[in-house]
Amino acid sequence: MIKIYTVSGYEEVGKNMTAVEYNGEVVIIDMGIRLDRVLIHEDVNIQQFPTKELQKLGAIPDDSSIRNRKVVAITFTHGHLDHIGAVAKLAPHYPDVPIYGTPYTIKLAKGEVKSEQYFEVKNPMYETEYGEIVQVSENLAIEFVRITHSIPQSSMVVVHTPEGAVVHTGDFKFDNNNPLGERPDYKRLRELGKEGVKVLIPESTRIEQPTKTPSEAVAQMLLEDFFLYEGMEADGLIATTFASHIARLQELIWIANKMGRQAVLVGRSLAKYTGIAKQLGLIKMKGAKAVRSPNAVRKVLKEVSGARESYLLIVTGHQGEPGAVLTRMANGELYDIGKRDTVVFSAGTIPNPLNRAQRYVLETKLKMRGVRMIKDLHVSGHASREDHRYLLRLLNPENIVPAHGDFRMLTHYAELAEEEGYLIGRDVFVSRNGYMVEIK
Amino acid sequence: MIKIYTVSGYEEVGKNMTAVEYNGEVVIIDMGIRLDRVLIHEDVNIQQFPTKELQKLGAIPDDSSIRNRKVVAITFTHGHLDHIGAVAKLAPHYPDVPIYGTPYTIKLAKGEVKSEQYFEVKNPMYETEYGEIVQVSENLAIEFVRITHSIPQSSMVVVHTPEGAVVHTGDFKFDNNNPLGERPDYKRLRELGKEGVKVLIPESTRIEQPTKTPSEAVAQMLLEDFFLYEGMEADGLIATTFASHIARLQELIWIANKMGRQAVLVGRSLAKYTGIAKQLGLIKMKGAKAVRSPNAVRKVLKEVSGARESYLLIVTGHQGEPGAVLTRMANGELYDIGKRDTVVFSAGTIPNPLNRAQRYVLETKLKMRGVRMIKDLHVSGHASREDHRYLLRLLNPENIVPAHGDFRMLTHYAELAEEEGYLIGRDVFVSRNGYMVEIK
Amino acid sequence: MIKIYTVSGYEEVGKNMTAVEYNGEVVIIDMGIRLDRVLIHEDVNIQQFPTKELQKLGAIPDDSSIRNRKVVAITFTHGHLDHIGAVAKLAPHYPDVPIYGTPYTIKLAKGEVKSEQYFEVKNPMYETEYGEIVQVSENLAIEFVRITHSIPQSSMVVVHTPEGAVVHTGDFKFDNNNPLGERPDYKRLRELGKEGVKVLIPESTRIEQPTKTPSEAVAQMLLEDFFLYEGMEADGLIATTFASHIARLQELIWIANKMGRQAVLVGRSLAKYTGIAKQLGLIKMKGAKAVRSPNAVRKVLKEVSGARESYLLIVTGHQGEPGAVLTRMANGELYDIGKRDTVVFSAGTIPNPLNRAQRYVLETKLKMRGVRMIKDLHVSGHASREDHRYLLRLLNPENIVPAHGDFRMLTHYAELAEEEGYLIGRDVFVSRNGYMVEIK
Amino acid sequence: MIKIYTVSGYEEVGKNMTAVEYNGEVVIIDMGIRLDRVLIHEDVNIQQFPTKELQKLGAIPDDSSIRNRKVVAITFTHGHLDHIGAVAKLAPHYPDVPIYGTPYTIKLAKGEVKSEQYFEVKNPMYETEYGEIVQVSENLAIEFVRITHSIPQSSMVVVHTPEGAVVHTGDFKFDNNNPLGERPDYKRLRELGKEGVKVLIPESTRIEQPTKTPSEAVAQMLLEDFFLYEGMEADGLIATTFASHIARLQELIWIANKMGRQAVLVGRSLAKYTGIAKQLGLIKMKGAKAVRSPNAVRKVLKEVSGARESYLLIVTGHQGEPGAVLTRMANGELYDIGKRDTVVFSAGTIPNPLNRAQRYVLETKLKMRGVRMIKDLHVSGHASREDHRYLLRLLNPENIVPAHGDFRMLTHYAELAEEEGYLIGRDVFVSRNGYMVEIK
Fold it and tell me: Quick one: which residues bind substrate (chains A, B, C, D) (predicted)?
């Protein structure tokens, strides 16, 4: 019998962790953190905080329901922090258990491990290719299926069991025109559907949008339409987006090149994510540079401020995060931002009251300085309702356990499933953090 | 001295009418209707209703403030009904005064005149080309400037006076990638800015969106991304959009061709708008057909229902309008719509309680029949806040009279203008229906 | 074993019907209609429509899951149409099965039966007192517990089984200060809690409000504060509220008396509900009169319009229902409503797109006539989240099946229950129309 | 000629300041602060910050438009910080100019002056009675008219000029049933209306609510209905409300007495406001005590936590303000708040993203500790649309300058005025911070 442990991420968007058990053996999928739970406590520094405390705060998964199970593998769907951010805290609970993921994901996870100040993580970590099927025990094998999302090398994780496949979607969208050329592996998904999917564990964050999520190519077009505008005579141009959104950053670099400006990426996390991406050939930095150290940042921003028309600044801070580059600019630090500057938000506002407040503070300060702002040149990285329907038709799973969402999102997923012939309680299971669903 | 008569459309989105007076001579811009004011009265048939009654209902402009002025020209910015729909009722108030507009606009206006059952309109109507400057009196000349919107041959109307130009934007967006190839005439706008714009009369409907409105190319991409989806195995495909949105219809026809399906446009207004567009070379109907008469509609829908996989139906009724094709389908008429069909809404919901209710009824009925729906594959045809800012910088007008919006929209426009250095009451004037603004 | 058939009202607010089975014997609770499902079809006249058709439209419960069970009693919690409105259509499915309810409820149900034009209802109907325990089979007894709501003589229905009580709340609020003196029977509820409640079936309509619902005394104060205002010099005064809301009507009559005006209730349904209420001593009509026939209505409104300062009109039509008195007034019929009149809405807007549209039409028309409107002098009749929590603590039920709400409301109820120590799937069951929950 | 200087509070809710000039002499009305502008800067301590800096931050009014005018009097409408909070910073700009207000207001203003650490305020401050007419120059006299709001001794300020009265409403509601017995002075308002009001300067914060604001008696009833609930068996009871809302605090003390619990008010600002109120006989503290010093707070909360059923705690922190008592409790300080406690919010959430975030953090933390929360047992202190209409009819002013609101609120007020026969730009003036309106 297959058991799905809905460890975490079933009551929130954040700190994802799921475990699949067959015949006493367990594969873990994701170990994420929940940053808003850290944010509400002013004195919490994740790197220095013990696991138990972070669990009590709701910042990382409480994995007590599986701690004594026989775990044979840990897998990561992709490299966002709500999927890998707790690795340094939780992997030590499963000593020697190997960790698998795509190369970009594993490299990011290793970075997390390195910056941890409390624990040492000794688990072996393996970079796995799409398509490779890794036997992790006599009965169980895992596989990473290529899918599109807002970070490179995202994957659906398949756990092959003698009773059929368990497919965890990770975070995904069906992007058929991604400017970087990544495409969902429809062929393999269709095959899996034919072979028989026992359980589907889909993310649910945008299930309420009654449409198909636009391609990343739309974001590219929105950005080009603004920046390459006939007669656009802006002086200082500052774009801000997610540091891990390599496709978006690539588009901005291309645009800077077309405008005859130099793209300058400023901020530690931008340097981190693009650095690894460059190493793997996932981004071309031609015509761009990334600066990281405080001194270099100060120096480059001084240069830029004296010749604004020659640069396209790309900075961290789209949510007004404390300490991020744009946040500091708005405070009057680093660069005399003002009337001559336009800030382009290539990101939405994360719908959490804390983010809204930070973003409000940021925008208020920028407005008081006379900065022009342009918002929402962005598309989501998550599947909408009609994408989910399509996945259901591709995979035709026997059972569904919606994941990665609060109760409302999970139940909306269940509603969609009912439209497709499933029934809640019979073959769609809305579960909660810390519980387990038995699949008969 | 220039006077701007804000006749109508200054307290609502609908029934636009403005008049520009210089030295006792008047140019009228637009004569629209307001359909929601007709909708709330069940027994009103516009074609058969007298002008006074329709004015009392708030369905067409009350033009009493300019009836006794010396009108030398009537101009139309574009062919939407909220800009030309009252021509048959109001043009007779200004006998013999010539009417000007682009060819597509004038042909549509002639259609309105023809279907009127109460009045006879004898005003001469002239098809005017972009760029042509038409002297309409000793002091006044008019000019149509090419601009992009959701109907072909939209224009900004310029009234040239000895004191400078008065520019009425009509409805517009800055679309730099329109799939049909139409582009805003930035060059002429920039020239006008240099020559000196005395008054700008801009539309205000989407002033609250803090972004740049996406290009029509984005709508095309959204549609292609859905329809040309790998593995899309839909049976019946039904798209619905605005009948006058020729670019959108063209995209749908292209898509049908790529899918190897025949596009069939069903409904009287679709036939009307595409008919005139075809005649002017504005749409290529290759691979498509439009059916209009009740018999033809019934026949073609019977055919389609027997071979759904061979057609892409394009129908009226995206707002659930009574009598429209999709509305009737939802009622079980014309075509046995059901589980095998997907309805694609390539249109937003017009934010009026009556439209919301009609749309709700439509969707509820479709859902009860098991129809799959996909929404919002659409972009707006109206400029957002940052487009408006760009226009202000292009034209650098001395005075501004925001139009085409309710009080909230007009005052939001005034806020934008204040950010750009104007001051309400000094050079930005928020006016009301029936009043007049004197420009010093 | 107890089975709860969640026949209807588990996917909507409307057409409630639940059945409790023990040992093969069934008690039905409520048989309601869903008016918005009737409204979306223009040609449906409930009285003349057959049951099957109405079920297909989703207008009345589909009772097929219990049609062949052995039904021993039908009970009504209270007299609102979403609880009794389908009696004439569905009671014939259970011939000779007796129907029970409080006197006001039964008299209203008899009215429904009488106006039916398609079926004849022969079931015996019994007026039952609060507290009386009626043995309806060897194993089962029913009981009506006094509770407060927005119609007189509302009750919770208890089905006593050998395994413990099943409590269906009907619609309720905990009103400790109702101006008519009705109070919840806390004593009996506490006793039931001690005796042991096997299953609680609570309504869920306002579960999302994180507060305690205000007493009807608050509505009375809002009305008095407006009408008895120092210096209130209104001319025509027109109040509109729910025709079955006897407490509210009584307050308005008292207020009219205090103002030295005559209260005149105009409209058929007002006459119906107050007529029965008066007969049972539930309302004092002193100083008021109700007019019903078209002629009387016309006559009295003519009188009132000639001496507006002497009357307080109380009319139907607060949701802009077609044919209601206020709706007709807004159309210019019956009474020349205008600048001298103030309309007081002592009712909220029912949050359904159709109602919103009707209400919008009503308000637009009234506004165009210069009528002053004052809204929201009203409190809800439904329990909020903290009232529900209190009920849970009073009854301490073993199992919960949330009712009377859409999926979102039912799941929100489940969330509350989880806060109180229950667990979804274990002892809280979110069910759907037509399904059944087995209680172990 | 009368000039109205709309110094501040005309683009926000906060930092109110208006000046009325006649014949070169000026009366100032209010000098408030805007706390959210302080909050967005982490390092700002108002008491220690110079005036210019605070003006630059937008935290206090920029009074440069009137600094060189001949000011003859400074008046305060009431004691809220957005009306008196800048006294210590701005009064020194007008040396020796006397300050007037009701006794409670002046005592609070003196407290502000005392805690200032940067400036010394030497202006004489006079406690003025309602009805008293104070001649402040040969031409000008001022008068305070009794009105109701959410703090004691609120007033409308009248500036009597040879051209008629200028009435500034301050913040107000028409409360005809205030439990403390305060009533609006309708008689005087009606007289003023008859004598002739040249200009009305009304607050606009709740102009968009289409109703009459409920009386404070409704809040009392909501609280009683919750606390005096039959069977309410709560253990720890903690209420939180505005520290200056003396009526609300009195109600809570009365309720505690009825419950046989001791009311304990904890927190510095609660002690401050109730201390002055007690001194003026505005509150009866019988059965209650207020603790202020950190030691006393710690001691009393330790006592309470050992005998929760004996106390009703009344604490600061309803908006989650950092450092407030409830905020600290939620952090696990001062009192082991948890499952046995119920927190009653007798206050709304202030609709500003920063407040929302603080409140969200507070509620999240309380929820994680298992605390029961009940919200919205509260009514507003501000007039709604229909109250404003009534005031217009009472005073019948010649001109209107809406105050105390953002642009949207001011324009909504203008819309109401237009319904009552005024016209924007003619006799209703929507102004902005720092501008001046000339009254002809």
Answer: 378-382
Q: Which of residues 39-78 of B touch C (CB under 8 A)?
A: 40, 58
Answer whether B424 sits within 8 Å of D408, measured CB to CB.
no
Residue-level pLDDT, tens digit, chain B, 440 residues: 999 999 999 999 999 999 999 999 999 999 999 988 877 776 667 777 889 989 998 999 999 999 999 999 999 999 999 999 999 999 999 999 999 999 999 999 999 999 877 778 899 999 999 999 999 999 999 999 999 999 999 999 999 999 999 999 999 999 999 999 889 999 999 999 999 999 999 999 999 999 999 999 999 999 998 998 755 567 899 999 999 999 999 999 999 999 999 999 999 999 999 999 999 999 999 999 999 999 999 999 999 999 999 999 999 999 999 899 999 999 999 999 999 999 999 998 888 888 888 999 999 999 999 999 999 999 999 999 999 999 999 999 999 999 999 888 998 999 999 999 998 888 999 999 999 999 98
Tokens of B111: 């259609």
How many other β-carbons are positioned within 10 Å of the β-carbon of residue D186? 18
Q: Write out the binding residues of B for substrate.
A: 378-382
Question: Mutate which of A424, A427, A433, A436 to test chain C, going by most C C-beta atoms within 10 A?
Answer: A424
Contacts of C103 (CB under 8 A, 6+ apart): C127, C128, C129, C153, C280
Residue with tokens 């050998």: C162
- The span from the CA of A20 to the CA of A29, in Å, is 8
What is the SS3 assignment for A136?
A: coil
Q: Which residue of B has its CA nearest to A185?
A: B230
**Domains of chain B as residue ranges with CATH:** 2-212+381-439 (3.60.15.10), 216-374 (3.40.50.10710)
Whole-model pTM over 0.80: yes
Residues in chain D: 440
CA distances to A384, B389, D319, D325 from D315, in Å: 45, 48, 11, 6
Residue C108 CB burial class (10 angstroms; 0-12, 13-18, ≥19): buried
Tell me if residue A239 falls in helix, strand or coil. Answer: strand
Residues from chain D that touch C186, judged by Cβ atoms under 8 A, are 230-231
Distance CA D124, CA D132 (A): 18
C-alpha D97, offset from chain centre? 24
Question: What contacts D279, CB < 8 A, 6 or more positions away?
Answer: D107
**D281, D405, D330, D283: which is closest to D15 by C-alpha?**
D405
Residues of D in contact with C375 (CB under 8 A): 210-211
Cβ atoms within 10 Å of A53's Cβ, excluding its own: 13
| Amino acid at the residue B380 | S
Residue B156: helix, strand or coil by DSSP? Answer: strand
Nearest residue on chain A to B370, alpha-carbon basis? A419
